[in-house]
What does this fold into?
Amino acid sequence: MLSERMLKALNEQVTKELFSAYFYLGIAAYFKDKGFDGFANWMEAQAEEELGHAIRIYDYVFERGGKVELGRIEMPKQDFASPLKAFEAVYLHEVGVTESIYKLVDIAEGEKDRATYQFLQWFIEEQVEEEATAKAIVDKLKIIGDNPQGLFMLDRELGQRQARLRSLLVQSGQ
It folds into this structure.
């Protein structure tokens, strides 16, 4: 059974993860509007991943006998001065998510909730990867600057990471 404090924090994290999906879709919309379909695909795939994180916590709350209570999701930013500024926002967002996960771990430790502590270890590893990936893209964009050829190449590279949900929905609608 989850303590009230742990349950409240996990419910807040579900909402944060759902916001993250919304955040990435907002940036995907920015990139699609600018003709950067590869960057948009990367963001859409990231949005799907964030939905998966939300569902993972959602399911865990139910497994532990808790009740899920979803919070309000704010509107994400959809306009950026450049691809670099968009990815800098991504990196800062992921740093914030990491801090939020660490707070959950602190609560689990304080509540002596070993099951939740163990559950959260996956998220810690995931956040190390998320931050490193975002930082690497920011670093590449800083090197590229406004070079159209460099932006085109990175857009093509990041376009290799395809979102899957849309294709699954299209298949199920046939």
